[in-house]
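pasting for ref
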Amino acid sequence: MTKDTMIIFEGALCCSTGICGPEPNKALIELNENLKRLKSERPDVEITRASLTFNLETFLENNDVLEMVKAQGPDILPVTTLNGKVVTERRYPTYEEFLALLNRERERV
């Protein structure tokens, strides 16, 4: 069985998770918790977070996301891809959305 690959492309963050400082963004805290849960429940999924600050090379490797950022600016972020295809933009998926996206992908195979 091949692993599904999910990449979350994010804007500039102060650290790799974005949940630092005196008042961390609640959406980033929720994302972090959702990804921990997803990784433990779905080891068949490779999940990567790519920040403009720390992972520019990942942006350069994905032409679709790179073109979106060039055309629409960093406000298009976050963008989530699943197996190379853009599945959400301008927001982080909820845990339930992550599962639905992965289940749909499994049904297609």
